[in-house]
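Recall that a protein's primary structure is simply its ordered list of amino acids. Everything else, from secondary elements to tertiary packing, is in principle encoded there. The following example makes that idea concrete.
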Amino acid sequence: MTPQAALARTTRLINEEYFGGAADADAIAHGLLLTTVRLVADEKNASTLAGQAALVTAFQLIARMGIGVEVIVPELQLVLAVPPLRALTLRAALVDLGADLIPGLTIRQTAVDAEITFVFGDSADHKANVEPTFAVDVSDFGCRIHTPGAPGSRIESDVAYGGLAAGAAVAALALDRALPNIEAATERTRTSQLRPSPGPPVDIDLRAIFPNLSLASRSISHLDVISGGAVTNGFIYTLLWLPVRCEQLEVADDDDVDWHNLNRCTQFRASDVTSPKVAALERSCTDSLRITGRRERFQRPGAGQASTLPDDVVVGVDRIEARWWVQEAWPRNLYVAATSNHEAVVTTHYANGACAGCAHPQAAPPSDEIPTISFVSFWAGLLQVCALLTKNAHSTSRRLTVFPFALGESSWASISELQPIAGCAIQCQRRGNR
């Protein structure tokens, strides 16, 4: 397998977003592989759950784009052994994962030649840098990435929310730094359209869109997840970092892991290729998160057929009609995630509110090669988890949107209430049983 084939969906998105589709995809992949990012953390900052969540997430989302990583971190015990990590110490786990992802990916344990450095917290960076260096602060529910040269603050949080957001923000900046290399490799200049900023500075607080996020532990008895793709990977990865116990998380999908899934599916490794997706996800099972796979595709309920879905259902499927079919089973709480090239969206649906047919009223033609990139897909999964864990705070259906390429802007996210519409795809207002 070539790195160009494994990165095909990432290169397609970059081509569409930055080069108007006119660049050579293999050359884009070459530009990504030529880029190296340095991640630096000392023992104090890397010993916290938040610090490790930030480091591991940044590493995952950067490496899955084909961008090389220098891992300048101490060999510490993992605070939490979150799959797909396998080794029990931090640096060894990252190096092991990096060797089982994109072919040709550069992973180093020494500082040699990086083009951008991210220093987590107030860690000391002992290399005399000529490249831009950014300090990454992490708090319970958010993160801050400073302008070059500004000092960071000690990471002391033992909550993962802020670290997960920080990892996604770092990945967006890593891609921004790769763009000059991609221009050189493709011999093309980026289109001149105005673009939002990925930062720095970056200042994210997840409570801006989820004010009721809590530090408390949560317990979920039964959860159905429709699709084993990238969003579900991000959803499961996020749950694994949080104090959440789920006795029965069932994932329905009939597909196998392919090389092109590795660019964004946080739970899959190259060694999972050809395995059923649900089997690979079952390998992420822990004592707290008990995952069962169903190797099947969700089917539309028959007329008069009773629903077998639990109260809480999470949907990450690309096909819009499938979102309608799940809604027609009328689970009590439904969380639908979707992505475009530059947006991660979750719509929430409760009894008597706007349904998934209202929120997603038009079916797009299916595509075999949807453009995707790691940090956009990840944001959709993170949003789903936050929506699920704050469900009791909201009785109205909502649309929650994050703009992963624009995390340096004040409007990096938006919230809107959803209203039932006359043109609902499943005509929910005509149903007498709603």
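Residues 222 and 248 are 5 Å apart (CA to CA). Residues 209-430 form a domain with the Rossmann fold fold (CATH 3.40.50.720).
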